[in-house]
# Entry
Amino acid sequence: MQDDEKEVRMPTLHGKTVTDRAEQAGDKTHAQIARRLKVKQSTVSRLLAGTTAPSLGTLLAIKGAYGIPLDELVVEDAPAPAETGAEAAR
# Structure
């Protein structure tokens, strides 16, 4: 990396906050969370594992479903999720 290049940092979901609030709402599994958010279960799994960055739409869905303020949903300055083989080949 050259001196004038900055490392790309992606926001990640604060998974513990989401799972704690989801459990309070009766959603104890990734499948239950996914149903409430109207997203795929695999999306919930990747978000909670920190392997993908949340979209604004997903953040707003979580905020609406569980009443979590946006600033409590995102962990700032997290390293970018690792590239998969397919992404690295691009």
